[in-house]
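queue> pop job 88
queue> type: inverse folding (structure -> sequence)
queue> payload:
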C-alpha cells in the first residue's frame, strides 16, 4: 500500500470502496490504531441525488449502512491486502442509529468510524472472511453502531462459482414499471426499486441496472444495497407511503439474487414491547427460496410515519 495514502483526507481511491463517482465515496481517510483496529474519517453529503434527507431533516439512515459497507471494503483492500479485482460479498449487515444525531443541520457532516476487525480467515495468504464492528460519531457525539460479515473471493474462484451466471454481465435486464414514487418515499421513478406484486403486502423487485448509485458497475447479480433499499421502500409502502426512518436495521443474505428471475418482496409488521416503535420484517424470495431477510425499526410512530410536509424526500 502507498504509505502516503494512509490517514490523509480525501484520498480514498474509488476502487477501494467500489465506487466510481467521487460524490459517492464516503470515507476520506484511515489510520491503523492497532493490528486489527482502525479509525476511518468519512464525510456525509448534505445533498446527494440518492442518499437525500428523510423525515424532513434527518440524514438517510441508509447512509449508516453505506458507510459501514464502504469502510469494511476500504480496510480489507487497504490494510489486509485484498486485491481490488476480488469479489466482495456482504452476507450480513446491521446498524443501530440515534435518531436525533441524524439531524442534517446543527452538526458537522464529518463522521468518525472506529473499526474493529475479527474472525479473520485467511487461505493461502489471502483474506477470505472477516467480521467488522463499528462505532460512528459526529462532533464527538455517538451516532451509530453496526457491523458486517463479509467474504472476499478471488476473481478466478468467483468465475468458477458463478459459472454460466457470469453471462448475465452482458445481458440487458428489462426495466419493468414501478410503483408510484410517492408510495415508497421517493420523488423520481428512476429511484423506485419496487413493482406491484400479486397481492397486498407483496412487491416485485424492480432492477434498474442503469442506476448510477445502486448499480455502480456491471454485475452478474443484484447488489446487496439494492435489496436493502427494496426492504426500506417496502416498509414505506406497507405503512402508507410516507417517510420511514429505519434507525435499526439488520439484513442477512442467504444466496445471490439473480437478475433474470423475479424476486418477490414481502412485509410483516411485528408486535413489540415498545408501543411507540414500528418494526417490520421484510423477506425476499426468488424461485420459491428465501434470498434475504431484513428487520427494520423506527423508534416512534412520529418518526416511523412522518406527517404531511415532512414525509417526502427533499430530493430523489
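queue> result:
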Amino acid at each position: 500500500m502507498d504509505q502516503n495514502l494512509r490517514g490523509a483526507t480525501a484520498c480514498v481511491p474509488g476502487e477501494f470502496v467500489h465506487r466510481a463517482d467521487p460524490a459517492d465515496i464516503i470515507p476520506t481517510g484511515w489510520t491503523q490504531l492497532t493490528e486489527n483496529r482502525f479509525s476511518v474519517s468519512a464525510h456525509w453529503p448534505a445533498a446527494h441525488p440518492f442518499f437525500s434527507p428523510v423525515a424532513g431533516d434527518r440524514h438517510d439512515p441508509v447512509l449508516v449502512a453505506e458507510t459501514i459497507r464502504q469502510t469494511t471494503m476500504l480496510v480489507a483492500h487497504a490494510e489486509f491486502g485484498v486485491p481490488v479485482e476480488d469479489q466482495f460479498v456482504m452476507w450480513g449487515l446491521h446498524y443501530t442509529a440515534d435518531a436525533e444525531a441524524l439531524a442534517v443541520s446543527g452538526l458537522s457532516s464529518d463522521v468518525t468510524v472506529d473499526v474493529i476487525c475479527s474472525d479473520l480467515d485467511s487461505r493461502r495468504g489471502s483474506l477470505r472472511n472477516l467480521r467488522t464492528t463499528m462505532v460512528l460519531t459526529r462532533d464527538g457525539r455517538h451516532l451509530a453502531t453496526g457491523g458486517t460479515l463479509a467474504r472476499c473471493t478471488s476473481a478466478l474462484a468467483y468465475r468458477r462459482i458463478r459459472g454460466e451466471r457470469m453471462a448475465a454481465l452482458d445481458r440487458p435486464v428489462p426495466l419493468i414499471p414501478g410503483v408510484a414514487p410517492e408510495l415508497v418515499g421517493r420523488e423520481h421513478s428512476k429511484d423506485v426499486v419496487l413493482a406491484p406484486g400479486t397481492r397486498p403486502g407483496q412487491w416485485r423487485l424492480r432492477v434498474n441496472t442503469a442506476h448510477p448509485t445502486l448499480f455502480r458497475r456491471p454485475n452478474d447479480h443484484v447488489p446487496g444495497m439494492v435489496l436493502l433499499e427494496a426492504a426500506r421502500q417496502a416498509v414505506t409502502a406497507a405503512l402508507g407511503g410516507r417517510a420511514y426512518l429505519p434507525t435499526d436495521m439488520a439484513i442477512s443474505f442467504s444466496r445471490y439474487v439473480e437478475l433474470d428471475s423475479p424476486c418477490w418482496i414481502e412485509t410483516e409488521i411485528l408486535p413489540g414491547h415498545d408501543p411507540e416503535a414500528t418494526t417490520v420484517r421484510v423477506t425476499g424470495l426468488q424461485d420459491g427460496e428465501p434470498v434475504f431477510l431484513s428487520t427494520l425499526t423506527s423508534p416512534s410512530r412520529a418518526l416511523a410515519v412522518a406527517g404531511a410536509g415532512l414525509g417526502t424526500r427533499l430530493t430523489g
